[in-house]
Design goal:
The complex is a heterodimer of chains A (about 280) and B (about 300).
Chain A (H helix, E strand, L loop, with lengths): L1 H32 L3 H4 L12 H47 L5 H13 L4 H11 L5 H24 L4 H9 L4 H12 L1 H17 L2 H6 L8 H10 L5 H21 L1 H10 L5
Helix pairs in contact in A: 1-12, 3-6, 3-9, 3-12, 4-6, 6-9, 7-8, 9-12, 9-13, 11-12
Chain B lengths: L36 H22 L2 E3 L4 E3 L3 H6 L3 H31 L7 H9 L6 H11 L6 H8 L14 H26 L3 H9 L4 H12 L1 H17 L2 H6 L11 H10 L3 H32 L1
Antiparallel strand pairs in B: 1-2
Helix pairs in contact in B: 1-13, 3-7, 3-10, 3-12, 4-7, 7-10, 10-13, 12-13
Classes of the chains: A mainly alpha (about 280), B mainly alpha (about 300).
């Protein structure tokens, strides 16, 4: 019948198209990363005649005095630090914003929206960072990521806190919990599921960031992973095998995140930025 | 819950009666202290608010590493006189509206399709979505190679079926569009996902009722799916426009604004002027971008949300 034809026919055609449009480009990365430099320069979508995949990976990792490994360390510190700060501070704001109706709320809500929409003023930000002595430091870059990531976190936390019954707060207050204890001991643990969502989405965002690192943390000695690709593009002899080995390596962490946390990512990406 | 709050002096949450506080303090503060805003506020004010406000001043200056000189609106005059800067301005709109439009249309079709009963649905959803999470730089490099006019795989494939492939990124009239298409390739998964979430929210009874009334697939789509997906569409439009107007990473990776300055957008102009040491001009570009984004997004979101409420 028609439904069966649709189910199998439509599905099969779609799978075929999806493989060509989305999977083949990624297979191209893997194949090219496995080729010798000479073979890779043909830019062909072919199975490598000689697999030198691991040699290429090792070369990329060792290149320029282990630059990529240092970059991975930097990116890891950056991601962990920025996301942790964002989560705690964002949850504090989202919680009070939802629970307490104060005259500050419209202002805070407006600022949160502005943070989502308005593009960063880059050179003045550099000026501020320089004034604080944080320009070209990892700490400075972490702070910038926190400032720009907070809005998204606050929106998610505010929406989730609304689902936690107030009776819980009241019970804790009656038991003598002060505001700090109430939040960190009672509310924060209850936010677990949305915290996972925020962590995963923001970790991918921070890890994949390119523009902020380019502006606020230029230079090789503390490069983040996204900037390492420039080493292979600037070279006169284009080593596509190494370039793609590098691309593959920096692509893997977000993909692992996706495979493990698919549900949370989907939830965060569809719900988070929806409502103003 | 609305009236009692105006004073702000009331101790715990209003609207509920908490008999008597067992803990005795002289001035019982709210259990939801406003100072919780402060730590986040410090980051926000220092690194977002101050630079944004300062940008309005610095955009009126000739600003180098060494000194700042007030020059009035010269930067803006220059911005709209130099052809390459004007091109960047115009391209920003082309890029944003092209990517946004395509993401809405393709995302809607894919979202509806991937909500129907087909085999491999989970696989398809995952496949469409995963480029969203991949590094933009990685995608840019990949497609730069795939779109290579000499021996790049895309043109090789086109050649086998007898179509001479264009110079995707080297043809001045095509470069911006090519990058926009890659942007859609990378971002359509998010739009699709939002539409799928919207589809899930549509009660199944509507379709059953329509079936009783003898509505066909097209009528279902036109009169049930489309109107009820409106919130999803609003989200996709706003998100993709915000992203599109601010877009930098992909363009910078794939073309660097070239050939010439034919694929420059405001964000890449800002970076180029910064690199060249024209901090004032760069900041003026930032202010123009700010105004463009604000002038499009705020009225649009107000209008879209208002129309939604009326229905």
């Amino acid at each position: 019948m028609r439904n069966v034809a649709w189910r199998w026919g439509g599905g099969s055609v779609a799978i075929l198209v999806a493989i060509i449009v989305f999977i083949v480009p990624f297979a191209f990365i893997v194949f090219t990363a496995g080729k010798t430099q000479a073979e890779a320069s043909f830019l062909e979508f072919t199975w490598p005649t000689e697999w030198v995949f691991f040699d290429n990976i090792v070369t990329v990792l060792e290149n320029r005095d282990f630059l990529l490994i240092r970059a991975f360390v930097n990116s890891t510190i950056l991601t962990v630090a920025a996301v942790s700060i964002m989560v705690v501070l964002g949850a504090m704001v989202g919680y009070v914003l939802q629970r307490r109706k104060s005259r500050w709320n419209p202002l805070v809500n407006g600022l949160v929206l502005a943070g989502l929409i308005i593009p960063p003023a880059v050179v003045p930000t550099i000026w501020v960072l320089q004034g604080l002595g944080l320009f070209k430091t990892l700490v400075g870059l972490i702070a910038v990521h926190v400032a720009f990531g907070l809005s998204f976190c606050i929106l998610l936390f505010r929406a989730f806190v609304a689902t936690i019954p107030r009776e819980l707060d009241e019970a804790a207050i009656i038991d003598g919990a002060g505001p700090v204890k109430l939040f960190f001991r009672v509310i924060f643990p209850l936010l677990k599921s949305v915290i996972v969502t925020v962590i995963v989405v923001q970790a991918v965002t921070v890890f994949n960031d390119f523009a902020f690192a380019l502006y606020f943390l230029p230079g090789d000695e503390n490069a983040t992973v996204q900037l390492t690709t420039f080493n292979y593009r600037a070279q006169s002899v284009s080593a596509f095998n190494l370039l793609f080995a590098d691309v593959l390596l920096i692509t893997i962490p977000p993909l692992i995140m996706y495979i493990v946390f698919q549900r949370q990512i989907v939830a965060g990406m569809t719900s988070g930025a929806v409502k103003g | 819950m609305t009236t009692a709050t105006a004073t702000g002096r009331t101790s715990t949450s209003p609207g509920t009666i908490v008999p008597s506080e067992p803990v005795k303090r002289r001035r019982m503060k709210s259990s939801y202290p406003t100072w919780f805003f402060i730590p986040a506020g410090v980051f926000y004010v220092v690194l977002f608010l101050i630079p944004t406000i300062a940008s309005f001043y610095f955009s009126l200056t000739r600003w180098t590493l060494f000194d700042v000189e007030f020059i009035g609106f010269d930067n803006f005059v220059r911005f709209f006189q130099e052809p390459q800067l004007v091109q960047g301005f115009v391209n920003t709109f082309i890029y944003a509206f092209l990517t946004s439009g395509l993401k809405v249309v393709l995302g809607l079709l894919l979202g509806v399709f991937l909500s129907s009963q087909i085999i491999g649905r989970g696989f398809l959803r995952a496949t469409v979505f995963f480029p969203v999470l991949v590094s933009t730089i990685g995608v840019g490099i990949l497609f730069q190679v795939l779109m290579d006019p000499f021996g790049g795989p895309i043109n090789e494939v086109l050649a086998t079926v007898g179509i001479p492939g264009p110079g995707w990124l080297t043809d001045p009239s095509l470069a911006l569009v090519s990058v926009a298409l890659v942007d859609v390739w990378k971002g359509v998964g998010l739009a699709t996902l939002i539409y799928i979430a919207g589809m899930v929210a549509i009660p199944h009874e509507y379709f059953e009722a329509a079936k009783v009334d003898g509505a066909g697939a097209w009528n279902n789509f036109r009169h049930i799916t489309l109107p009820l997906l409106r919130p999803a569409t609003v989200t996709v439009v706003l998100l993709s426009l915000i992203g599109g107007l601010r877009s930098f990473d992909l363009i910078w990776t794939m073309t660097g604004g070239g050939p010439g300055f034919t694929s420059d957008v405001l964000a890449s102009v800002v970076y180029k002027q910064y690199q060249a040491g024209f901090f004032g001009l760069s900041t003026a570009g930032n202010v123009v971008l700010f105004v463009v984004v604000a002038a499009i997004i705020f009225p649009l979101s107000w209008w879209l949300n208002r129309k939604g409420d009326e229905q």
